[in-house]
Amino acid sequence: MIKFLDIKQITDKYSHEIHDAVSRVIDSGWYLQGKENEQFETNYANYIGTSYCIGVANGLDALNWVLRAYIEMGVMSEGDEIIVPANTYIASILAITDNNLKPVLVEPSLDTYQIDDTRIEEAITKRTKGIMIVHLYGQCAYTDKIGDICKKYNLKLIEDNAQAHGCLFKGQKTGSLGSASGHSFYPGKNLGALGDGGAVTTNDKELAFIVRSLANYGSSRKYVFQYRGRNSRLDEIQAAVLNVKLKYLDADNKIRKEIAAYYMQRITNPKIILPQVEDWDSHVFHLFTIRCSGRDKLQRYLMEQGVQTLIHYPIPPHKQECYKEWNSLSYPITELIHREILSLPMGPCINNMDIDKIVDVINQFEL
Ligand SMILES: *Cc1c(COP(=O)(O)O)cnc(C)c1O
User: Fold this and answer.
1) Which of 11, 36, 198, 321 could bridge 58 with an S-S bond, Cβ 3.0-4.6 Å?
2) Which residue has its alpha carbon closest to ligand 1 atom 6?
3) Residue 366, burial from CB neighbour count under 10 angstroms (0-12, 13-18, 19+)
């Protein structure tokens, strides 16, 4: 079977360096808040192009801490509204509700699956304090229009960059476009650790200081607690792994783009809707998503032919049990995407024979 994503293969590709890095940490006797974290924060801030990077425990915490920091700074308070795309992964929305802020769901564009910037302004109220854009599937969600709206209404622009490490908007990395950004290093992400990991990037010195404290029990000085924080630190071992893998991120993303270009060129079945890419710098293909009106049949057929696919995501946030209060709301574009979307195998380690097979099998699919 052709796997959707073979993480072991990716680890094997960098096996020697990863083993060396992990051994170095083991032998150092220093496992938290040490040199590896410091090095990674410097490397990743340089890579993204921000003044600050704070390593944290995971991507959800990263987003959570950004919002919490704005609350501590007095920029946001309980009940304030944050605009967020209706078709995002649940974590973006959990970060908002965890802080007692109110998510205001906005439909995506059916062409790019990114938040529809023509629908943002109508969702703004007196209580709107920020827009959380999500570079979903690895494609840049930022537009000049979104930047203009944030300026016009004095809104914070928060980026959920969990799926888009290395993605560019006019030469500038996602994660450096807004006021603060949350990143995830979950193993399956483009830059993945060997476990959980996350980071916040920002140019805001005060926010950086507060996030660093919050993720360390709310303390910046040992045994002095300024905020009610939590334990949300990035392990030295994970930071060491990330220091290795960051060096190869651009090369890995290049392979993803080559696979995507090949899929785009070779998949000719008229029943399949391919992703729309205007600018190849602005998509790092965390996922290669196609749409098909007979999605479930297509997925079963591909499985029978030995091709594993996944659905990102099968149930939109507003239809989830954890958000019962929204279950009767209607977001037709979001719901259509959730009915029709399918992710094909994608990653830096798929071989050409497998890609040819996937293309052939899809082209022979009959609805
Ligand atoms: C993975 C992901 C997150 C959460 O990251 P974790 O490290 O799993 O907590 C947040 N937002 C999006 C869009 C994601 O894909």
Assistant:
1) 198
2) 59
3) exposed
